[in-house]
Amino acid sequence: MSAYTILVILVSVASMALALDSCTVQRQCYCETKTNFVDLNLIGNITFNLTDSQGGSIYSIRLCQTLNLPYVACHSVHGCQYNVLSGQNYTIANASNPVFNDSTTLIYRGANRTTVVNLVCSTQQDNFTFSNEKPQLTYNFVLTGKSACPKDLPVSTTTTIVPSNTTASNTTTHANTTITTHPPTNSTTVTTTPKTSPTTTAKVTNATTTTTVTTKSSTPKTSITTPIASTTHKGAASTISFMTLWTVTFAVWLSSTLF
């Protein structure tokens, strides 16, 4: 067995496995598997009228919507059989929704009868044919065409918006202004004028010499001015006065002696 033959077999098996996926979601004329879906609603209102190979029966089929024929047994049904020889009518697909056996087989129930529609994917235009009645009272049809092809499920895309961590800040630029704050000064500048102590003058009667002793004291400038007490040097003044008196007396005595 060549490698090409093996590859063809593997592809065929994979295709069959995909086609036979069971329906995870099912509603009227719609089957959805894990990977694809089949939807027959686009052709669901078309009435297919077929005759078997012997010409003994006429079949009217509408896949997704009910039909109404002028026969009691074929009112509001999906499928009806009319027997040309006997003139009898039979419901072969009642008004209940069809059921997908898998993604390639659609089954309708009727009064003691069953209709099976096999789906064959093709690139050709849709074609609906009668296959056979096998087993008895089971009517097999084939839908071949694009409508029978499974279609890929749309890929759902979830968009997540991540909040940006960027904080927009409004910056107001001010002119560079230098403000110099001078701390309040509680200091008091006191200017102290040097004080002159009182002048002590010793006067001697009948004397021509007068001695004046002046004592000057000053207090330097300070932030806090302390009153300066005036001090009179009484001891020094008394001593000087005594010496002056003695000198004057001696001078008088000497003058009287000599002259």
From TrEMBL:
InterPro entries in UniProt: Man6P_isomerase_rcpt-bd_dom_sf (IPR009011), MRH_dom (IPR044865)
All copies of domain MRH, residue ranges: 21-151
Stretches for region Disordered: 164-202
Signal peptide per UniProt: 1-19
Keywords associated with the record: Disulfide bond, Signal
Keyword Cell inner membrane carried by entry: no
Protein name per the record: MRH domain-containing protein
Organism of provenance: Lymnaea stagnalis
